[in-house]
Amino acid sequence: MHSYIPKERFFPYLSWTQVEQLPDKSNTVIIQPIGAVEQHGPHLPLVVDAAITTAVVGRALSKLNKAIPAYSLPTLFYGKSNEHAQFPGTITLSAATLTAVLVELAASIYQAGFRKLIFLNGHGGQPQVLEIVARDLRSRYPDLMIFPHFVWGAPHRAAEIVGETEYEQGIHAGDVETSVMLALLGDQVNMKEAVRELPETFEPGSLLSLEGRLPTAWLMEDLSRSGVVGDATVATAEKGEAILDSVVAGWVKVFEEIYRFNGL
């Protein structure tokens, strides 16, 4: 049941008495991996975002100093994925439902005595929801330190490995995600179905973008017939392992810093 998470770092394997007796619970880091079950083109399984996030958390916790108390909750597999709802297989929660789940989860963690909670999200369609939830939780629980983070937000070398253009333009099921999935679940990747698809969205030099400073709302069907935005055909497991290694190293540093963080 712990999947990529080390057994000794998997929160549900504790008994209630062990939780009660944990020393320094207010400084123990609790991590909630959050993914999605949504289409990732014809070559990748629906589980991509959840798989990558869980693997990154697990590998980072394996490398984290054993003296640092940190535990992972079970991955929340479902997210707000309505931008992919036109593709069969996508399962989506509403923003309201995802908000309610995260708020009630955090309330349980808080009641148990913990004061450091990371929402570690792997799906690009919901960072804003997590940020709103985190701000509301901070208002409700002034002594709760809560961190709404994106799995690709820690320092990493993905752009160097796949190239700046692909990293910036390949926002869904392209070289990065396909390479990582080849490294993690290669038997679930069908490279015979991998495609390269990049939309022509804005005129050259446009100030507008799909994401970033001046984004526009979009659905995946606006951008891609295959569900891919990027070049999946050039992905390799070797690139995936290199990307994972760099992302994991970044998260080890972030977990260490959060452990040391004493609040604002």
What does this structure look like?
This protein is an alpha/beta fold and 264 residues long. It has a single domain (28-259), classed as 3-Layer(aba) Sandwich (Rossmann fold). It contains 9 helices and 6 strands, in the order H-E-H-E-H-E-H-E-H-H-H-E-H-E-H. The chain has helices at residues 16-21, 48-63, 95-111, 127-140, 158-162, 164-169, 175-185, 220-223, 237-260; strands at 29-34, 70-72, 116-121, 145-150, 196-197, 230-231. Strands 2-1-3-4 form a 4-stranded parallel β-sheet, with helices on both faces. It has a two-stranded antiparallel ribbon with strand order 5-6. Strand 1, helix 2 (48-63) and strand 2 form a beta-alpha-beta unit. Helix 2 (48-63) packs across helix 9 and helix 3 packs across helix 4. It is globular, with a radius of gyration of 19 Å. The protein starts with 15 loop residues before the first helix and ends with a helix.
Please describe the structure with a list of short key phrases separated by commas or semicolons.
9% strand; 9 helices; globular; alpha/beta; four-stranded parallel sheet; 264 residues; 39% helix; Rossmann fold; two-stranded antiparallel sheet
